[in-house]
């Protein structure tokens, strides 16, 4: 939603070519349809294995002329073939300050660990989970009274701010990757 809003407001020099989900009832698909965007459900059960499924995603994305793949709520590990097809052109947002608290429940992990600050990270996707080069991060304080819900709400606000910002940087060709480091021109 925040990326669509930024596109509509002219803050992102690009367009949303397609919204794809592996879940028929995904809120993102519903939002895409309501926003007159091209919304596609690709059922993983129709394919034999992850790589076959990913080849179909690659086909659709290439057919639509996609330059950047933005993951949002896509809770599947993508294959090395998919990463290779879109090397340094797949980004994800994660609700922690990577490399800390990878995987599911980053907010809960942060609270259990007792950190004083948490946040979110926009990163390029590579073959490892929550591992790729970091584009942007936002920090939020963790208060002693925070719950998983209250911390999640603070982080989500920052996610909605920095994810469109990272997309805009990419679309303006201002991101340069050298190894694990991302430079913003």
Describe this structure in words.
By secondary structure, the chain is of the alpha/beta class. The chain has one domain (2-184): 3-Layer(aba) Sandwich (Rossmann fold). It is 36% helix and 21% strand. It contains 6 helices and 8 strands, in the order αβαβαβαβαββαββ. The chain has a 4-stranded mixed β-sheet. It has a two-stranded parallel sheet with strand order 1-2. The protein has a two-stranded antiparallel sheet with strand order 7-8. It is globular. It starts with a helix and ends with a strand.
| Class based on secondary structure composition and strand pairing | alpha/beta
Largest beta sheet: strand ordering: 3-4-5-6
Question: Shape from CA axes?
Answer: globular
Q: Specify the CATH homologous superfamily.
A: Formyl transferase, N-terminal domain
Strand content: 15-25%
In brief, what are we looking at here?
With 185 residues, this protein is α/β, with parallel strands linked by helices.
What's the arrangement of secondary structure elements?
Blueprint: H1 2-8, E1 19-21, H2 27-34, E2 39-41, H3 50-63, E3 69-71, H4 80-85, E4 90-94, H5 106-113, E5 117-124, E6 134-141, H6 148-171, E7 175-178, E8 181-184
Parallel strand pairs: 1-2, 3-4
Antiparallel strand pairs: 4-5, 5-6, 7-8
């Amino acid at each position: 939603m925040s990326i669509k809003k930024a596109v509509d407001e002219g803050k992102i020099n690009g367009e949303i070519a397609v919204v794809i989900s592996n879940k028929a009832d995904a809120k993102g698909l519903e939002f895409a349809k309501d926003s007159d965007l091209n919304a596609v459900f690709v059922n993983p059960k129709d394919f034999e294995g992850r790589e076959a499924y990913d080849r179909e995603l690659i086909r659709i994305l290439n057919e639509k002329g996609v330059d950047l793949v933005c993951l949002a709520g896509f809770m599947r590990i993508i294959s090395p073939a998919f990463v290779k097809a879109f090397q340094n052109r797949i980004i994800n947002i994660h609700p922690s300050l990577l490399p800390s608290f990878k995987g599911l429940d980053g907010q809960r992990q942060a609270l259990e660990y007792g950190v004083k600050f948490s946040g979110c990270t926009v990163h390029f996707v590579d073959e490892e989970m929550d591992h790729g080069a970091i584009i942007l991060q936002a920090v939020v304080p963790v208060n002693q009274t925070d719950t998983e819900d209250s911390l999640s709400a603070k982080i989500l606000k920052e996610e909605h701010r920095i994810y469109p910002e990272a997309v805009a940087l990419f679309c303006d060709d201002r991101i340069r990757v050298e190894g694990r480091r991302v430079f913003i021109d």
